[in-house]
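ARCHIVE CARD
Drawer: 12
Card no.: 0347
Subject: one protein chain, sequence and derived structure
Cross-reference: see card 0346
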Amino acid sequence: MEFAMPLFAAIIVAFGLIKRVPVFDCFANGAREGIGVLYRIAPTIFGLVFAVNLLRSSGAVDAVCGFIQPAAEFIGFPKEVVPMAMLRPVSGSGSSVLLTGVFEQCGPDSFAGRVASVIAGSSETTFYAVAMYYGSIGIKNIRHTLVAAIAADLTAFAVSVVTVNAFL
């Protein structure tokens, strides 16, 4: 298994050489284009990371979660998962840290742990994805994308509870 990536790279290079493609020139051009994309999207990503860290360190996330938790419990959504559900559309790594916290607090086989696992697998880092994809091609008007993506995330949150309840 440790030879899978080198073997894959060797196959690509060999195929390129057989087809008489200037492999290194193609690689260099692709790397150059990648750096250009990074240059265009970096300010957006830095701004997003700054905003997430600001909200987390200021306590705003905890305040919003405290406000939402009673309503979430009323509809059957585990209160331990609310912070993760709030952060998931913004930060994949931040929500993974909170997922680990749910596992440590409740256990991975608990209702909250299973709901958190389903959310992690079925929802998207919406704001990051929109910033990354639209920012990389210079689109500023995202129209209905954000509304549709957030609706999809909310659906994933609700269906995660229904799905876990169905299989317990």
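Annotation on reverse: DSSP finds eight helices and no strands in the chain. The radius of gyration is 21 Å.
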